[in-house]
Write a sequence for this structure.
């Protein structure tokens, strides 16, 4: 099988737990470090699937690689390749499919719950998960659900947390976190969490019972990732 292509847009926002999942399933992958000026591949032909990680930038920023990534997503969708977007990656996927990205009413940072949208697609992709469960967030913008996609996840502060279309899964939240990533993001984004609120957690709040939270998050990730790799068959 050809390798899975993973686009990294920021040094601290690599594949995280996804890499462990892929290794455990014997699936080959290659990380393209856009943050280190590695070029966006011009074609999806030699790739089994496309993964888009997060990043602090906006899909609406005038960065030269953003149109290239959106074009690559379009090629992957046209070729019926599985596509997976985390946070910024989900926003890129939405925009590539005709959605829009704009500021959310509030920032979501830390461990906050999401809930299943009651429809057949959500039941399929979230099979085995509770109707409501906790995930990690770090975002200030939100995507719209693109045309022909099915809305699968929502939260109180951000209506659009996840969607699926064909073999593609777009997430606003982060299920790929590792403990060291939580600590690193909190250090880098200390100004963003300096004034906690109902949707922004302090370092102490987001690292409380961290191992247990990460374990539960990885169960969520296992369900979503296992459903996503079915598209590789």
């Amino acid at each position: 099988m050809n390798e899975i292509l993973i686009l990294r847009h920021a040094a601290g926002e690599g594949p995280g737990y996804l890499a462990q999942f892929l290794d455990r399933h014997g699936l080959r992958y290659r990380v393209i470090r856009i943050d280190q000026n590695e070029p966006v591949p011009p074609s999806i032909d030699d790739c089994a699937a496309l993964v888009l990680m997060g990043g602090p930038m906006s899909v609406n920023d005038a960065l030269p690689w953003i149109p290239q990534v959106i074009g690559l997503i379009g090629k992957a969708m046209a070729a019926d390749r599985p596509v997976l977007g985390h946070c910024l990656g989900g926003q890129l996927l939405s925009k590539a499919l005709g959605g829009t990205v704009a500021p959310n009413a509030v920032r979501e940072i830390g461990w906050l719950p999401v809930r299943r949208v009651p429809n057949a697609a959500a039941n399929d992709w979230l099979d085995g998960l509770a109707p409501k469960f906790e995930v990690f967030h770090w975002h200030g913008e939100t995507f719209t659900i693109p045309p022909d996609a099915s809305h699968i996840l929502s939260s109180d502060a951000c209506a659009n947390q996840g969607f699926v279309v064909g073999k593609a899964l777009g997430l606003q939240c982060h299920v790929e976190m590792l403990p060291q990533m939580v600590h690193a993001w909190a250090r880098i984004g200390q100004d963003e969490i300096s004034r906690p609120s109902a949707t922004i957690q302090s370092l102490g709040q987001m690292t409380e019972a961290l191992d247990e939270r990460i374990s539960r998050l990885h169960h969520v990730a296992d369900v979503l990732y296992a459903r996503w790799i079915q598209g590789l068959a």
The chain has a mean pLDDT of 97. Helices lie at 17-24, 65-78, 88-96, 120-125, 179-188, 203-207, 210-229. The longest strand covers residues 101-116.
